[in-house]
Amino acid sequence: MNPDPVPACNGPVRPQALHDLLLRVREDFGDPHMMITENGAGFIGHDDTPADGRVADDLRSDYVTRHVDAALAARREGAKLDGYFLWSLCDNFEWLWGTAPRFGLVHVDMATQRRTPKDSFSIYAALIARGAG
User: Fold this and answer.
1) What is the model's pLDDT at position 2?
2) CA-CA distance, 4 to 38, in Å (whole number)?
3) Which run of H or of E encompasses 21?
4) What is the pLDDT of residues 6-27, one digit of tens each?
5) Which of 9, 30, 65, 83 could cross-link to 101 by cystine, CB 3.0-4.6 Å?
6) Is residue 48 part of a domain?
7) For position 56, which CATH number holds?
8) Does residue 9 fall inside a structural domain?
9) How confident is the model at residue 101 (pLDDT cuts 50, 70, 90)?
10) How far, in Å, CA of 101 to CA of 91, rounded?
């Protein structure tokens, strides 16, 4: 798989690696039950300005869709994946980068603390509503 044109600030985006890891844990560690407790990415300067009450965060929306799809594919192939939690609900302070990367499904204006759900929020909500699998 080729690297994404805009890598996340915490590394390249590789949903296939999540799929492969879940199956490898299944094979190498006796088929345990698993839960993904943090999976997400920040894209510096790509989704940080609300316009007309909306934050169009296409990179995160794609990230969420592709990673949930990869996790569900591993589950269909036998991985005992019991849960998946996206990081993070809201934009926050990251220890290495401060508030520059936007990891959240909800944009936080750091000066006013106003919150605006991003497009990825709606996409993740739709995945949850359909039972994501």
Assistant:
1) 46
2) 21
3) helix 15-28
4) 567 777 899 999 999 999 999 9
5) 9
6) yes
7) 3.20.20.80
8) no
9) confident
10) 8
